[in-house]
């Protein structure tokens, strides 16, 4: 604001000085009138330009303030990077401790199905289809597979994940629960 006022004042003083000099010349002439009109036009153009620059600067300052405000809102929601990093580090420590509890290989049993049962075959296809929709490469990579149920020779299990650490098995269990119809998934240790 002060810069705009100083610029306008400088333009006005320059135009007044020019006009005073031209008006005190004792000889009336067309040149003096032309110079007077040009001085007034220059003053008007300078004031308009100063006003436009002032408005542009004001808009730029408002945009910068708005951007800073948005950044502060995002930081308030997410937290600063140090907080996020500390949260990730805590979770990693929890998973590391979980892995230290069991050294064997684990997998997730999604559900158990009766062999040669049309109803169970439909349920199996539906659950497997949902999981393959969520994780299309699970079958190709051997992470979604079937095996006989150790508890019953007449049943088979749909399993998710192989050779998992305890923390990985917990994550696979959470992933499996996203695609289940009945929510009976559980973690089992390989023997």
Output mean pLDDT: 79
Instruction: Report helical residue fraction.
Output: 55-70%
Low-confidence stretches: none
Largest sheet: 4 strands, antiparallel
CATH class categorisation of the largest domain: Alpha Beta
Which word captures the global form?
A: rod-shaped
User: What number of structural domains do the residues give?
Assistant: 2
Topology-level CATH name of the largest domain? Alpha-Beta Plaits
Strand percentage lies at: 5-15%
For the largest sheet, list the strands in their spatial order: 2-3-1-4
CATH homologous superfamily grouping of the largest domain: Sporulation related repeat
CATH architecture of the largest domain: 2-Layer Sandwich
Work out the helix count.
5
Tell me the total number of β-strands: 4
**Termini, distance in Å?**
79 Å
Short description:
By secondary structure, the protein is α+β, with helices and mostly antiparallel strands. It has helices at residues 2-23, 30-78, 81-101, 118-134, 166-177, and strands at 106-114, 144-148, 155-164, 186-189. The chain is built from five helices and four strands.
């Amino acid at each position: 604001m002060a810069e705009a006022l100083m610029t306008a004042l400088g333009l006005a003083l320059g135009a007044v000085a020019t006009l005073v000099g031209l008006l005190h010349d004792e000889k009336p002439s067309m040149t003096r009138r032309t110079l007077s009109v040009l001085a007034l036009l220059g003053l008007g153009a300078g004031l308009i330009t100063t006003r436009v620059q002032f408005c542009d600067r004001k808009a730029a300052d408002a945009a910068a303030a708005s951007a800073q405000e948005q950044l502060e809102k995002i930081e308030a929601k997410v937290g600063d990077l140090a907080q996020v990093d500390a949260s990730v580090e805590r979770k990693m420590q929890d998973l590391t401790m979980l892995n230290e509890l069991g050294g064997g290989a684990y997998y997730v049993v999604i559900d158990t199905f009766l062999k040669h049962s049309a109803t169970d075959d439909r349920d199996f296809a539906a659950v497997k289809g949902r999981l393959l929709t969520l994780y299309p490469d699970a079958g190709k990579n051997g992470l979604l597979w079937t095996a006989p149920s150790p508890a019953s020779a007449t049943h088979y299990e749909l399993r998710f994940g192989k050779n998992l650490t305890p923390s990985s098995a917990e994550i696979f269990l959470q992933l499996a629960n996203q695609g289940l119809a009945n929510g009976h998934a559980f973690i089992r240790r390989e023997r």
